[in-house]
Amino acid sequence: MNAFVLGVVSSLLATALTVAGGWAFSLRSGQWPVVLLSRLTGLGVRRVLTRQQSASRELADELARARWVRVLTGRGNELTRDGFTPVWEAAGRRLESVQVLLPDADLGPNSWLSRREEEMRRVDLGFSSGLLAEQVRVNAAYVNEVARHREHVSLRFYDLPNIHRVVITDSVAYLTLYRQTEHGRNSPCIVARRPGLMYDYALLLFDTAWNHSRPAE
After folding, report:
1. Where are the domains of the chain?
2. CATH class given for the domain over 2-215
3. Which is deepest, 20, 109, 144, 153, by most CB within 10 Å?
């Protein structure tokens, strides 16, 4: 597990350094530097959004035509919103599978989720102790209820660094890099297409976390 954590951190640092130059230029010149850099390196990055929430509508369109969906998230609020409704309705029909990873909210003060909550309490006065864990439980209950009616929906819990959100379909990956002083929705989001190194990296992140998670009861 320690090796996995170190690998995640080092890979994220490398990713940030790789896209930083193109991102800086993109503020003035659009996204062409990012695309050019991506093509030269084989990263497969199509664009870098300054805020995750800017990708919401585009993500909903991608989910509507996906064959399968995998989600690793730090809280899961978006799972209960309109953008994911087509996912739950299509699971087992158009969608072959939906796999969801949420933080384990039952591990107490020494968990990675609690560490993330401490970070957020420094910048958001509304974050009382235990609030983040409670929000995760509510979202987990929602997904678990869907899973009772859709056998192709699976929910598991992880205890790993709460530093990114990954949403992957069979053709695109959305990788959000959480900032310590920002909500996830305000953190930068990398959009990567398949085939590409960044898409493969996002898939590796998810698969490794899935293999080290526990199933929902």
Report:
1. 2-215
2. alpha beta
3. 153
